[in-house]
Amino acid sequence: MKSEERVYDEAYRVATLYYYQGLNTEQIGKEMKFSRPKVSKLLNYARTHGIVDIQVVDMRTRLSPLEGVIRNRFSLRRVHIVPVPDYTGQPVWLERVARYTANYLNEILVGHQVLGIAWGTTISEISMQLIPKVLIGMKIVQLNGSANTALADNRYAADILQTFARNYQASVQLFPVPSFFDYKETKDALWRERSIQAILKQQQEADILLYGVGAVHAGVPSRVYAGDYLEPEDLEELKLQGVVGDISTVFFRADGTWADIPLNQRASGPPLDLYRSVDRALCVVSGTAKIHGLHAALNAGYMNELIVDEPTARALVASYLPEHVAADGEVAVF
Fold it and tell me: pTM for this structure?
């Protein structure tokens, strides 16, 4: 790599850690094994070379190899890989991914949009990292219900949605139904009600969808699996069905199929086809336990933009695209 290109890459990474992830120069120096003066010099380079302009701006025309492999293989409009050190652990990865996402949302959200949000552990963490911004005419709609047998109301999801609404001074449409109905017939009857149909219509007309991928066994447990949303027999059924993950409490297999999974007939989340049709389907994922679900969702086209931590991105490529991993372990576009 040419010297100028290396300096540019180092300055971009330092600026990302400093402005998007909130690390100070001492923390950055330890993480990147640089002296504090070098970190300061790189930050100054970032400011004077157009990398930083209120927000972190990447002026390069090329993607990093890891970003390029994932974007090109799965035909995504954009891939964001959040640098994190492996040793810090998955809770820290999630926090940094959430902080990055909060900054990025302020870049892409504008007034008079409809933002569909699926509640969950990842989205909850993002809600805690939001940066205030007034968006005139912004509407936020909940994508899936959250009531369960232990908590009959909608407080968990409502808190997340209302935090987003307060942050952007937006209106919010909650979806006060169970995460999973006991009977398919009950859901079918409720879905015919005009009040519910109005919410479903807002979901279908969303400009941006914000969601994660759930996994049964994750470093930071997915809310739907860790809470009282599923009975033991439900979990056994998911295993028998070969389920690898869920989006908005709608489960899917490794091949992306979902419509014939019995539990989905009682789920309140939108059909997964919705994520293929929306203008911006922004999926946020953190944690290597989610790579199987992430791969299936990518293959099925259930997102067109991805934010993911670096260790998870590398694990995804190593597991499913090994032809792009060189002998020294580095990812390359061949």
Answer: 0.81
